[in-house]
Specification:
This protein has four helices and 20 strands. By secondary structure, the protein is α+β, with helices and mostly antiparallel strands. The protein has three domains: about 120 residues, no CATH class; about 100 residues, Beta Barrel (Lipocalin), CATH 2.40.128; about 80 residues, no CATH class. The strands form four sheets. Strands 5-4-3-2-10-9-8-7 form an eight-stranded antiparallel beta sheet, with no helix packed on it. Strands 11-12-13-14-15 form a five-stranded antiparallel beta sheet.
């Protein structure tokens, strides 16, 4: 259990709230209704970014492949966006919102035929346009509901780490081999009667205290993150008051935007538990928005009166029908006052 009601723990809770706010969708102030994209728009488009305005996260001349698929689905750079809206009664634009980095993609014109995709911020700033043309009617892979092939690299990593860290339940042996049944990839451990299984990106345990039916333990990525937790040694830091600054980047669609700075003017000297607290705060924030992925703390260093470390996490969020992969890299810098 972590201690409560200290500046440090208040800060980690603040970080969790900040990350949740940054990841979760913001409520739209405008009137919005579901949009329906005509089937004539379906296909693959080769587009180029143009008319970049000040503050645009995309540069002029950037080439982008966009696929419009059945079910009002847009795929951009391997990411899938769904549930577009019409805003304030405008029947011409179908707007997909990606709240992680605050970008909107507005396809027009639903009434007169394809013209362009306007790019802007979710706060209402117009940044530029994607211009070009439809090059084919192919929508292969975009919006597919086909069950993905299990990632055996991750699955085998899970089995290996579970056998290393929980050998009392999952002892490695020649009998513990991969097997499949009804969508599960699993291993049976005869000496303990335990089963460890993965299906549809989730981890299940069965046997012993878990009973005779599979019990969900969490997502594959989340469990791997727990089992792969980085042990970070924090050097002895002089006691006293410090200023803490958090800066970094978040990358989505291959576009990086700045995060922060978030500054705490006066905070206690960091301790080794800080990193665990911050990692836990990030995990909590990511859980709140259905984020799965891996979390790592690295680049711990001291230089004079300054102590810093970097926390990174990558994965996918699903919010308001959007499934988007993002990468965060945040640097925590403590400076002695």
């Amino acid at each position: 259990m972590k201690a409560a009601n200290t500046p440090r723990h208040t800060f980690t809770r603040t970080c969790a709230a900040l990350l949740t706010a940054a990841l979760a969708s913001t409520a739209a102030l405008a009137q919005e209704t579901p949009a329906t994209v005509p089937s004539s728009f379906e296909g693959t488009y080769e587009l180029t970014y143009d008319y970049a305005q000040a503050g645009s996260p995309i540069s002029n001349g950037t080439a982008v492949t966009v696929v419009i698929a059945p079910g009002n689905t847009m795929c951009v750079g391997g990411y899938t966006l769904t549930n577009p809206v019409l805003r304030n009664g405008n029947q011409h634009e179908a707007i997909w919102k990606e709240s992680t980095v605050g970008i909107e993609l507005a396809l027009s014109s639903l009434v007169n035929g394809y013209n362009e995709i306007n790019v802007g911020s979710t706060s209402g700033t117009w940044w530029g346009q994607l211009r070009g043309s439809k090059t084919s009617t192919s929508t292969t892979g975009c919006g597919s509901t086909t069950t993905p092939t299990p990632d055996l690299t991750k699955i085998n990593e899970l089995f290996t780490k579970a056998q290393e860290k929980f050998a009392q339940y999952f002892p490695a042996s020649a009998n513990a081999v991969n097997q499949t049944l009804e969508g599960y990839t699993y291993r049976h451990y005869p000496s303990t009667g335990m089963y460890l299984a993965i299906a549809d990106g989730k981890v299940y345990v069965m046997g012993g205290e878990y009973g005779n039916s599979p019990k969900e333990a969490g997502t594959l990525d989340a469990i791997l993150s727990e089992l792969s937790g980085t042990t970070v040694e924090v050097p002895t830091i002089p006691q006293g008051d410090y200023k803490l600054s958090v800066t970094g980047t978040v990358a989505t669609f291959g576009v990086s935007v700045a995060f922060g700075p978030l500054v705490i003017d006066k905070i206690d000297a960091p301790k080794s538990s800080d990193i665990d607290d911050i990692r836990d705060a990030v995990k909590k924030a990511l859980t709140d928005v259905n984020f799965t992925g891996t979390i790592n703390v690295s680049e711990v260093s001291t230089a004079g009166a300054e102590f810093s470390f970097v926390i990174e996490f990558t994965g996918s969020t699903t919010s308001n029908g959007f499934t988007v992969s993002s990468s965060y890299k945040l640097k925590y810098v403590y400076t002695k006052l």
